[in-house]
Design goal:
Layout lengths: L7 H11 L8 H30 L2 H9 L3 H11 L1 H35 L6 H38 L1 H18 L1 H17 L14 H9 L9 H11 L6 H4 L1 E2 L6 E2 L4 H11 L3 E5 L6 E6 L4 H5 L18 E3 L4 H11 L3 E5 L5 E6 H9 L12 E4 L2 E5 L4 H8 L12 H9 L8 E4 L3 E9 L2 E9 L22 E2 L7
Length: 492
């Protein structure tokens, strides 16, 4: 600050030497007080930075550094383990430094401002009036501004941007101060507990708010909050949080896609079915899929095969295992627990009437979290021909269709798959070649079907925004097992 064109301290010193106006403070006293103001603001900033850095730094990261032998991280870990004492220490330090700053700083600035006002060519009465009405408010505002900006906001921002580095640097000093303040903190805590007991609050422990699953999921999905996670890791963590909200019905292999063996089938029939469907376990049925007799696990036949106990004409019925059943409404977290308890990797899914709705395997459960771990067959892929045309397996979930093609098809409880979407809006089971026009912008054409079951649907529209673009020669792909296939002419 330079109000008169020269340094205030030098100006005051000159006036004192000339004997013009007596100084309220000596130069050394003024310098000492100004240095005290700077030190008190620095102390306030230190306690603020200590509080925010140690509280916000990730405990998992600190534990990792401690495991690597980091001494500074060990100190931070000690502070985090006694976080209540740390917060009491920082709060006490901030309070004491703020009180001292107000006591010393405001008085010093007010005296300097009063002295500068006295240099103005005013009457003594006016000078005294201005000193009392302007000097004190200006001193208060100036000290408050310096404390808020330099003592609060700046250290807090730096501590939140670099919590690990700041915590490790000031951790040792914070721990020492915390130990020195222990007697005062004990007195304050006991006083607090006594007052709480007076108003009927008996719990002496402080409960700090913890993150709800929804808040944690929001943090994970925000790249600014979790910069160390890539998109794949973020999706896996989000899938874990949504795990309990997904039911068996949403991930099961539907009844129409279940590959099963008759109870009178032989080992040769099992081998033939394995060549076609490439599975390692199959339900064994009686009269229909509603009559499940058990499950045959091919891997469990290795020992009988090596001992020549099984021949190609041998029946499979003696080797089946009992089937276990789950309802369609069972959440996946309970399904996984049940699979672990029963030791079964395949369970039969039944509807409300006791009929077989489909089956679910451990692979289906893990795929819900980490995605498919096996290569998807061509007939199960979304084939993008160009930016306006795509061939989609009819049993693909609507959410997947929206995600892969950049669409916004409505998601309701009336259907789950693209086939269900087409049937719902047509209000009938379409034949090969039938079309559905939706919102005058999208055209859905059934290109492959097997009886009432739709296998493949062509989507055409000017607003497709595919994530992956496939070569047009995939247009000749024909779903396995299709009795009818008619792929209309597609513009390239």
């Amino acid at each position: 600050m330079n109000l008169l064109g020269v340094s205030p301290l030098r100006f005051l010193n000159n006036l004192s030497f000339l004997g013009v106006i007596p100084l309220p403070l000596s130069v050394s006293e003024t310098v000492l007080r100004l240095l005290s103001v700077i030190v008190l603001i620095a102390l306030n900033a230190f306690f603020v930075a200590a509080e925010f850095s140690i509280v916000s730094v990730r405990r998992s990261r600190i534990n990792q550094l401690v495991s690597g032998g980091d001494v500074q991280a060990k100190t931070v870990q000690s502070l985090q383990q006694s976080i209540e004492r740390l917060l009491s220490t920082t709060q006490l330090g901030i309070t004491l430094s703020s009180l001292a700053l107000g006591w010393i700083g405001e008085d010093t600035v007010a005296i300097l401002l009063s002295f500068w006002l006295a240099q103005l060519p005013l009457t003594p009465e006016m000078t005294q009036f201005l000193s009392h009405s302007i000097a004190l408010p200006l001193a208060f505002l100036l000290i408050a501004y310096l404390q808020i900006v330099l003592g609060e906001l700046c250290p807090k921002s730096v501590a939140l941007m670099y919590p690990e580095q700041i915590a490790r640097i000031i951790g040792s000093t914070s721990l020492t101060i915390s130990r020195l303040f222990t007697p005062f903190i004990w007195v304050l805590n006991q006083s607090t507990r006594f007052l709480l007991r007076l108003v009927g609050i008996r719990d002496q422990r402080r409960h700090y708010a913890s993150l709800t699953p929804e808040e944690l999921q929001l943090i994970i999905s925000t790249s600014a909050e979790t910069p160390g996670l890539d998109q794949g890791e973020r999706e896996i963590l989000n899938n874990i949080f949504e795990f309990r909200d997904v039911t068996v019905e949403e991930i099961m292999v539907p009844r129409t896609r279940v590959a099963a063996l008759d109870e009178d089938a032989t080992f040769q029939n099992l081998l033939d079915e394995m060549v076609d469907s490439k599975h390692s376990r199959y339900p064994v049925i009686g009269d229909s899929l509603d009559d499940i007799r058990g499950i045959i696990y091919f891997k469990e036949l290795a020992k009988p095969l090596s001992n020549s106990q099984i021949q190609p004409h041998s029946p499979i019925l003696p080797w089946i295992k009992p089937a276990r059943f789950v309802p369609t409404s069972l959440p996946l977290n309970e399904l996984l627990t049940r699979m672990q308890r029963l030791g079964h990797a395949m369970l039969i899914v039944v509807d409300d009437f006791g009929g077989t709705a489909g089956l679910v395997t451990l692979q289906d459960v893990t795929a819900e979290i980490i995605g498919d771990v096996y290569e998807v067959a061509d007939e199960d892929r979304i084939i993008v021909l160009n930016t306006s045309t795509a061939l989609v397996p009819a049993q693909t979930d609507i959410e997947t269709v929206n995600e892969q093609l950049g669409l916004n098809l409505p998601i309701t409880e009336d259907y789950q798959t693209l086939a269900g979407f087409v049937i719902f809006y047509l209000q009938k089971i379409p034949q090969v070649g039938e079309k559905l026009t939706y919102s005058d912008a999208l055209e859905f054409t059934v290109t492959a079907a097997e009886g009432p079951r739709l296998n493949q649907i062509q989507i055409r529209g000017a607003r497709l925004n595919p994530l992956v673009y496939g070569p047009s020669n995939h247009a000749a792909t024909k779903p396995a097992g299709s009795e009818n296939s008619a792929i209309p002419h597609l513009d390239s």
